[in-house]
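Quick one:
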Amino acid sequence: MNRRLMHQLIRSSFVAVFLFAATLARADDDAAAEAKKQFRAGVNLLDDPDGAKYEEAFHAFKKAYALSQNPRVLGNVGFCAMHLERDGEAIDAYAAYLRDASDIDEREREQIQRDLATLTSTVAKIRVVVRHPATAFTLVDTRAQTRGPAVENSYEIQGKEISLRVRPGRHTFRVRAADAESLSVDASLEPASDTTHELTFPPPRVTTPLVVRETSPSLAGPIALGAAGVVVLGAGVTAGLLARSKQGSIEDRCPNDLCPATYDLESERTTAKTYGTVADAAFVGGGVLVAGAALWYVLQPKRRTTRPSTTASAMCTPAGCGFVVGRGF
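Output:
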């Protein structure tokens, strides 16, 4: 439909607002009021200063028709559906509009008949079958265009399949369930073709839980420190025994501090005192080392080891099926 006729349709839609309102005026109920409100909203959306908003207008007109069952609304439904490339819905709406509506402008009737002839002769039929336990899905149809952005439409599926009539071209189909999305299927639909495509979902990823274990702390450090403490304590014991032996020798050689003339008492006492000092220092140092080793062991944090998680998934494509196992941390 060219731009001139589009504006003619919009102007005629404004006229239809008043005819539509008059039809519903006798029905004094909430449904009639809401139908008029939706119809006016659809007309305003088509005449938006920033450009016609076909998708929002499409839903407004559909709601107005559902509430009123007034056939005059169907021309607007078909007009929006055709621009959204929802060709099957455009065919149904236009056919019912021409059949049921009265007083259609002759130029508008001729244009719609041409559009309807083009749509019915080129529309591609597709049946989409969903392989998934759920019974409610949203089908997303994306048609690539040579120029301009891709055209995307969504359809609700109740059950396991849906049959559509869409614009020929390169389409990508996918379905969404409540908690998953199917693998995409690309299809090049020829004019007047009739095809069936199945959409399958990838299997859920199975992940083994991360295993965390606590292991005993390393004993190497505390053992080395403790061993050093034991050695020092041993040296203290040895020095203590030597000091005691030296003191005994002095008492034997010099009873009541009376020593032989050749005996060097001061030198022997100095040696005994040195052994005693070494023994005392060794006992203190060795005790500190042993106590430090024990404290080190007690306060050392336990080490945590983890086993990496494992994920497994299977995937089937037209080229074949495969099984993938992955590991992660």
